[in-house]
User: Fold these one by one.
Assistant:
Number 1:
Amino acid sequence: MAEPIIQFDHVSFQYDSQAEPTLHDVSLTIARGEKVLIVGPSGSGKSTLGNLINGLIPHAIPGKLTGKVTVCGQDVAASSVFDLSQHVGTVLQDPDSQFVGLTTAEDIAFALENDGAPVPEMHERVAAVAKTLGISGQLTQSPQDLSGGQKQRTAMAGVLIDNGQVLLFDEPLAALDPATGKSSIKLIEDLHARLDVTVVIIEHRLEDVLTQPVDRVLVIDNGQLIADVTPSDLLHSALLPQIGVRSPLYLQALTAAGVDLATVTGIASVQTVAAPHLESRLRAWSAAEPAAPRRQVGEPLLTIQGLRFGYDRHTQIFKDLDLTINRGDMVALVGRNGVGKTTLSQLLVGFEQPQAGTMRFAGTDLKTLSIKERADRIGYIMQDPNQMISKNLIRDEVGLGLDLRGVPAAERDARVDEALRICGLYEFRHWPISALSFGQKKRVTIAAILVLQPAMMILDEPTAGQDWRHYTQMMRFLESLNQEHGMTIMLITHDMHLMLEYASRTIVLGDDGILMDAAPARVLSDTGVIEAASLAETSLYQLAQRFGLDPDRFTGQVIEHERQGMSHDE
Amino acid sequence: MTNNLFGFAAGDTWLHRLSGATKLLAFVGISLIAMASYDTRFTAAIVVMSLILFKMAHIHWRQIRLVVKLILVFSLLNLLTVYLFSPEYGVSLYGTRHLLAGSGYFTITQEQLFYELNLALKYVVTVPLALLFLITTNPSEFAASLNKLHLSYKISYAVALSLRYIPDIQHVYHQISQSQQARGYELSKKAGPLHRLRGAAQVLMPLIFSSLDRIETISQAMKLRRFGRDKKRSWYMDRPFAAADWAVIAGTAGIIVVGLLLFRVNGGRFFNPFR
């Protein structure tokens, strides 16, 4: 084995703020030049592991550390964040929240500035690293104004400039649209190959990371290292579903078709996966399996006609947009970053005013309604629940909208209780909100909107930052709202799986209005639309293509099969 | 997007091209001498000069409207309180008494009016200078210039970062306030001021919590790039002083000298037209 560069020797760590240790007795070795993926559900301790590599633990985040972490020959506990940063470059989850420079160039130069490097040298090195990452043209722009992919390149450039030996990526896919996510993973692979660095990626979206080669996968669950294996061994094992990490879709298709994973070779990529008689078995399964049912279409609830809007005269976001949402729809609104998905919802709820066009909701012209009145009809749930919550106690928060509408106490309490029951929060009703998890907080914000009894809800990235288990819980809950309570739901999302699995209809927004309005599986079978909207092909599509199956039908069948399988499990 | 309360506006006038340190020095120097001097001719001349500079920096009225109005209200209040507390302060200062109106405690004298005019001029003189500095200095250079004046770079950077985040925080405030309005808080002009104030308080809590999260993330991100390790750092945007910088510094020095000379001519800080 090559020279070890990162070593954990019986490491345990407990945050000062927590009653239980987050990591238990973890021992592992990463060799120089390796590319390693760390997976695990939220709260498993995988980010803690990352923070032990870059020294934020124990130097910036206090807690009790036992055992020894060695990185590039230095004992992490005896070193400092500063010294370690010369060796380990860390790219944090959300590039937006870590930019400090006013321009891209300054942000890239930040580490050098702190080293007191001479100005001409900085300009030279910034230019060189910007060229490596293909952002030379953006140097004078503000990092906030860049596209998602360019932002991430800027963040990478800011750590690459140190010429460190280890690159650490903490959930690099979280803030990116599917196409950008794919190219980021590819870029990381390029850097790994070209710069001869050791790469550590922390991510729970396993399938996306595995689209490029990875040497080893470390699986963390409940603070323990439960597997240290190659990607193929991991995929052959039954470990993933057990710990709540989603296994790749193409393997779910194989399982659905009754293929024993033990007989599969080339399991790590959809392009190489093979098994005895795979093609004929998939074909036979697809022929026998009923096509995914088409959902019934309700009467029109929201009708948008000739909508025009732009934040300023030069950039028109919507020109004559027409759109109808039907009662009972579960719509996924997708498209590139900045194409106007959030703007559309803000126009609907009255945060922004259209320049022209009409929006009618159940026969009422929305123009005649105030923000407050619209909220009684259309609820809008922001991505970050912390931006919506303003009370300390759950009951107060959920009841707030009713209090402000002067609803009598008895009715208020009954409606609050009902909303809490629907959202599965009734048992927590007297809890302070600060004691809840992220997903639970999100439910509180949903309950607080639900209590106003709107006919439609818009949710901005309802599952962002949640692992598969929490994601599934959240989506099942939204699905039951949709199916059992007749709520019309519009989901703004980047998540192709979410859209495939839960949406009855996908609306793809492009620069010139609606690119496509069809069933999710159809959208993901249209290469032109996929490219124009920065979506990504799923591996089901690629699998169907490889074996000459109808991608639309096949995708729908596999997803339907998986959904049914999951409901049997419960 | 919301408008910036005040903040850097990119431009390419000679004022924008000056080094941040030069502008800071000039701003501090001229403000100090203008604050110290009660020579009406001197302060009035500086007011005129800063208005000309405004024109030269292509600053528009709408960029500064809000701040100027706020400051006007506060200075008027201040002038009023000064009068209420000692309506005859001007008399004791200038040593003469030219009564215009009133008797007893509340009198109006030429001396008091003149004194308050001087006070008003002082408010008027520093505000355009400060705005000029803030609007034409890009925040990263602002930090560099504070640091050049031997203020610790950590503090300099903190100041610059908070200036840079003003638009961001305004944006988040806007979002939160909209979501609160959807819940039923009336924050528009329809509601009374007390009601709006209470509603605004509801926005602050989520704003503070989400800002605290951001601060933690950014401070970790900065540590990971060695911010705060050494006593000194360099600045990517650092510009060597150009001829214009030296000229402005010389000009500033000249103004200060004139101000000081006037102290001698007037025999003190006060210019006294009543003698």
Number 2:
Amino acid sequence: MREFVFPDPSLTGRAGQFVWLAINIEDEKNAPFLVMFPGEGVPTFAVLDPKDESVVLRLVGSMTVPQLHAFLDNARIAVAGGGSGRDADATLRTADQHYGARRYAEAAEAYRLALGQAPAGWPPYARAVEALLFSYQQTWFRGEAAGHDRCVDLAQSVLKRLAGTPSELAVAMTGLDCALALKDDAPDKAQRVAALEGEVRRIVADPKLTAAADDVSGAYGSLLEARGQAKDEAGARRTAEEWATYLEGAAARAQTPGQRAVFDSHRLTAYLQLGQPGRAIPMLEASQKDFPQDYNPPARLAAAYQAMKEWDKALLAADRALARIYGPRKLRVLDIKAEVLKSRGDLQGARRTLEEAVAFAEALPPGQRSEARVAALRKKLESWKEAGPPPS
Amino acid sequence: MNRLARASLLVVVLGASAPLLAGPTLPFVEDDYGRALAEARARKLPLFIEAWAPW
């Protein structure tokens, strides 16, 4: 979004319609904001009514330029109040308010109702479907066992109506993710996964596809998981190679180093899936040169060298990243460093690094601190203490 | 657009944002909710928020 969407000249006229705020969730000074407005993913976009700080519209995930324009239009209508007089629009507004406040069960019910009330050609149809799918996923995370079932049913029932729209891929992919998350003994799981996998494959192969590049990349991730669950090693490899090829093409079309670097993380993941981490080294070295203050290139180099079992290079890269890094992401790099030290046979150094990670995780402020992450790190440290002699 | 499960695979190693800030097309206030909220109230404008991460 920061490289491909926000700089788009078509947004210039929008500058005076909103006050624009960017919040870096890794920056400790934004922790109080994150307590007030916790999120489920990055990026998250929201529009607040400044009178009462209520969230009138919210969306998790990336948007294309046209989708952002529509989001902004919908937000202005929501803040202004009034409406079309149509039941579906009024119900949608209620759904958006629940979604904005992260009341996903209530949001799901209201979106479902709004879609039922929607007349033919209702403009918000696609975004209401996407929000309902996301709400179903969230209700599952909060203990609603049927969340994924409903998500799969909805995705399968609306795909034909969304054919050729920018939402088609996102809906098929979310449906596939939900199908993959069904319990293995769920009725018809294999058939439902196969049907949605086929839809996602068909859509990503469409030369007229207008979805955002990271949605396409995400779709390949879902396809890969589908092949993994099917224990189809050759199919998984073919999918990972298609994914890498797609990303390399997107990176080659980038107009700036910043645009090219957007794809580094996805490409590294694809290369790791292929068992070819060395393929990531040239692009990461280029990014490291282009962005010497950015901790991401050395952090990713550390992960690549770790996969290549080049321990010394991995440690050097991890230390370069740690010299620049801040916020919760530091835990990921400390974990890589600890694993590399352990692999190299330095269990004492590995434990010290993990202890540093535990202390850092515990010291993070509310809004950034994750009890689950602290518990996982403590558990790992305990297991390493049991695995060998104590540090001298 | 909305994805969570599929994001997990990517976020394991890396994250997926660009290293640079947004271009000058939109006048973003950086990391100052109080200032942005006060400005939105004074100008009677809705407040657009992007929560992002550098990874």
